[in-house]
C-alpha cells in the first residue's frame, strides 16, 4: 500500500483539488491512504484568528469570515450549489463559532489546537467529497481516533503503541474498499481533545501511518521538483538530488530545511520505507528518493537558511569563568522553556547560543535567565548552514554581511549573519 501526502500548496484552490484527484487516479489499482494538510495558508490565518480571540481584537470576526469564504469559494467552484459537502463544512466551522462566542477560559495552547485543527478537518471534507463526486471510491477518516498523543498541546507526543494498535486494527480493511482520506498534523488525546503535532507536521502524519501499516513507500507531493540543494525561493541555480540517504535527509531537516518536517524520516528509516518527494504538477517526474542504500552525490553544497534568529550572550553576574555548573543551569532553562539551540559557543566569560525567535517563549526564557545571569542579545539575524561546504560557497553566502558567529567542522559550516 502507498501513503500520499498533499500539503497546503497542492490544495490551495479548486484546480489543486482537481489535480489531486488526477494524481490519485493515475495510481488506480493500488491501496492508497491520502493525508491532506489545510488549504493554502489556512493554518496561518487560523493562528491569526486564535490570537485575535485571545487578545479580544476587532478583527476576529472578519478573519474568520475570510477563512470561511475562501473554503466556500473553492467548494462552489468544485461542486456548484446544493452539494451535501456544504453542510459538512458548515458543521465544522460552527464548532469554532460556538467557541469564540465566549471569553477564552482555557489554556492558550489547548484553544490553539481546537481552532487551528479546523483547517485540516475542512480540507479533507472537500477532498473526500471531490473524490466521490468524480467516481473515486474513498472514505473520510477522523485521524484523531487513530493517532493518539499525550496532552502537550501544539506539540503532541505520539503514543506509538496505542497508535499502532488503532491503525493496524481497522485501516487495512478500509483500504480494501477504496482510498482513505485523512488529516495531517492532528492527533487526539485520551480525553478526545484535539492536539497538533507541531507546525508543518503533516509529513510526520504520513510517516506514522506508513510505519504502522508497513507501507511500500510514502510520497509527499510538493511544489518543487524534489529535494534541492537549497530553497529555490532564496537561491537561483539549485540542483535536485535524485536520491539521498536517510542520514543526510535527517541532517538537512535537523538544520532547518523546511521541505520535510524533521520528525518524518526516523520512523521510515526504522521500517526501511522509502520517502519519495515529487512535484504535484508532474506526477510522472522522478523527484527525490530517500531510501536505504542511496548514493549521495553533492555536486553543490546543501545550503539551509533559517531566518528570525536571536543570538543570546550569557555571562555570570560576578564575571567569573563560565563553568560546567553554569552551563548545566543554562541548559536546564532552555529545556524547561522548550527552546532548541541551533548553534552555540563558549568562551572564558560567556556562553553564546543561537535560537529561533518566538515572541512568547523568548520573553519567558529571557526573564528566567536574567534572574541568575547577565544577558545580552541580538535579534533579526540569519543562520546559514552549509553541508559539504566549500570555502567559496561560504564566501558567497556571507558576502556583504557581518558575521557574528562562525563554526566549521569537516562536513558542516554554520554562520550567523546580520
Ligand atoms: N532544500 C529544499 N529543496 C526543495 N524545497 C525546499 C528546500 N528547502 C526549503 N524548501 C521549500 O519547501 C517548500 C515545500 O515545502 P512545504 O511548503 O512544506 O510544502 P507543503 O506544505 O506543500 O507540503 C518549497 O516551496 C521550497 O520553497
Ligand atoms: N497545516 C499545517 C500542517 C502542515 O504540514 O502543513 P503543510 O503540509 O502545508 O506544510 C501547517 O501549516 O503547519
Describe this structure in words.
This protein has two domains: 2-222, Carbamate kinase; 302-417, VC0802-like. It has 13 helices and 16 strands. The protein is of the alpha/beta class and 418 residues long. The longest helix has 20 residues, at 60-79. The mean pLDDT is 96. The chain has helices at residues 14-25, 42-55, 60-79, 85-101, 108-116, 118-133, 160-176, 202-213, 246-254, 265-271, 324-336, 359-370, 391-398, and strands at residues 2-6, 32-36, 138-141, 179-183, 186-188, 194-196, 217-222, 243-244, 275-279, 288-290, 302-316, 341-346, 351-356, 373-387, 403-408, 412-417. The chain is globular, with a radius of gyration of 23 Å. A hairpin with a 3-residue loop joins strand 15 and strand 16 (412-417). The chain starts with a strand and ends with a strand. The chain has an eight-stranded mixed sheet with strand order 3-4-2-1-7-9-10-8, sandwiched between helices. A six-stranded antiparallel sheet has the order 12-13-11-14-16-15. It has a two-stranded antiparallel ribbon with strand order 5-6. Helix content is 40%, strand content 23%. Residues 7-8, 37-38, 43, 119, 184-185, 199-202 line the site of aspartyl phosphate.
